[in-house]
Prior knowledge:
By secondary structure, this protein is of the alpha/beta class. The chain has helices at 2-27, 55-62, 76-87, 101-113, 134-143, 189-201; strands at 29-34, 44-46, 68-72, 90-94, 117-120, 147-154, 157-159, 167-169, 174-182. The chain has one domain. A hairpin with a 7-residue loop joins strand 7 and strand 8. 39% of the residues are buried.
Amino acid sequence: MKVFFRGIGEVIIPPVIYILMRLLWYTASKKFHYITDIGEEQHVCVCWHNELLMSPQAYRKIHKNHPASAIISSHSDGSLIAGTLNILKIRPLRGSTKKGARQVLLQAFKSIKSGEEVLITPDGPRGPRHSMSDGAIGIALKSKLPIFVMNYKAQKYWELKSWDRFVIPKPFTQIDFYIQSLSLEGMELETAKVYLREKMLENTIL
């Protein structure tokens, strides 16, 4: 019975989340700050876990039709995120770069080879908040792709008491999106992790 209701929830809840996302998106006053040019070049795309309500929408505004996939936790909560991203035409890759890493990384490289952009939260699925896992960096270095960074700051917002302090912008607030493309060419893994984390923290809610 528990499995049945979970299955029902996975069908019903993602469209509800999507509607909420779109309502907040359309009522907000949005300003996009392009720190660097993005263009249509293929990237590995990143945002913090607590920015997942708005950043995928910003991605789809910038890359409207680019084929994309996202690494999503195989946990039950991940099913709700996966269902919501599917509506945005972002294909879920189920797994984690910490748990079941080999399988999900193989999926990610296959997606990149097919021309998709891969979206990752470096501190997901369980944190610590604003930490930097090896996944996004490793994929970018091995595939020789730049990193597409999406961050935002909302003037007024709710902050959940979750591990990531998930951010929900309030209706009709102003949201500033910060977009940049970063090259990791020639960097070692640990150096690249420090560099990307510093860049992502420059334009986020701390």
